[in-house]
């Protein structure tokens, strides 16, 4: 853990309270809530029920984000240039290892803290570009940290935390989409124990700048597996662009343009035996450990977009005068924004409940993973919908200026489609809740 981050977490005072006790780098009461107050209302999100560590993460990450104003993100969006300076600043503060073990250089905090970090980044004005620049470093490394060998963890994770290496997550395929158990990328084992990978992945974020990929591939034909989820393995591979059998094609996209999204093609791409994470054939179970975490992080990112847009819209509605009165005096403006606020607040509660449940499940065996999945998927759905409502209404509140780049709300609206679509669609979440909670017949 970086010295700066240790000092911030241990010594910096809470809002309106005394410093966190120095004997513990993690002070999270089980199920407890704390109230915090500030003299000036510079935020619109209600802050009770956050732990001391969550508030400190929000404050200290917010200090980093202040170094990168909206002008920085507008320019990165325009040029589609990777925000490497932002990634480096977060790495320098130790934030890329927020939810990774202390023994590997991380902070040893949880997904609850990681979620508020991602919300803070998106809410700062960075939007999905800022969040996605480090997103995979937080969640894609979770299966590696839990199931990897000692050698894998000690040789890879510290370099990701330090920012020396970046990583990406290789799961989605063009012909299977969300039907992950039917993926067709094959990792064929060779006589010397190495593997030859052939297949295609799509929508791989940060592949152009990543050194490592957490790759999901089939190691046994689906027809030979007892069920579709079997025979799938997880790997941590090098993306060696000079080696034969690897090709990447960048996808032009609507939002988050500073972060690359790619098609990745493998054709007999060689990877060593020690790239395998855990036991061969058990990869699908391992990625579920990371996917629930990802849903929490996406929910936080969506909240950040929504709160940023709503705050900007409220400021504009207070200042903009038409017909000799501020437009915020009109209920046609005020009521939609108030409704958006309540939706964000409700989604916030669902999001941090899911993150807390995820963290507590690590020590409490009575918490079923199905329950974590229901909470995480519900939070992601609610936060994404609330963000869309807030961003769309922010644009409409600005009227014609909402269409202008300089007001940022158009960028956040473009960004907010990401959490509605990825990593799982709204419709598949509704299918999941219908089946797992309501016990309705499976429809897909």
UniProtKB/TrEMBL annotation:
Domain of life: Eukaryota
Alphabetical keyword list: FAD, Flavoprotein, Oxidoreductase
Residue span, Acyl-CoA dehydrogenase/oxidase C-terminal domain: 281-437
Domain Acyl-CoA dehydrogenase/oxidase N-terminal positions: 53-164
Coiled-coil parts of chain: none
One Pfam family cited in the UniProt record for this chain: Acyl-CoA_dh_N
InterPro entries attached to this UniProt entry: Acyl-CoA_Oxase/DH_mid-dom, Acyl-CoA_Oxase/DH_mid-dom_sf, AcylCo_DH-like_C, AcylCo_DH/oxidase_C, AcylCoA_DH/ox_N, AcylCoA_DH/ox_N_sf, AcylCoA_DH/oxidase_NM_dom_sf
Residue ranges, annotated region (Disordered): 1-27
Gene Ontology molecular function: acyl-CoA dehydrogenase activity; flavin adenine dinucleotide binding
Cofactor section: FAD
Residue intervals of the Acyl-CoA oxidase/dehydrogenase middle domain: 168-268
Family, as annotated: Belongs to the acyl-CoA dehydrogenase family.
Protein name per Swiss-Prot or TrEMBL: Acyl-CoA dehydrogenase
Annotated source species: Xylaria bambusicola
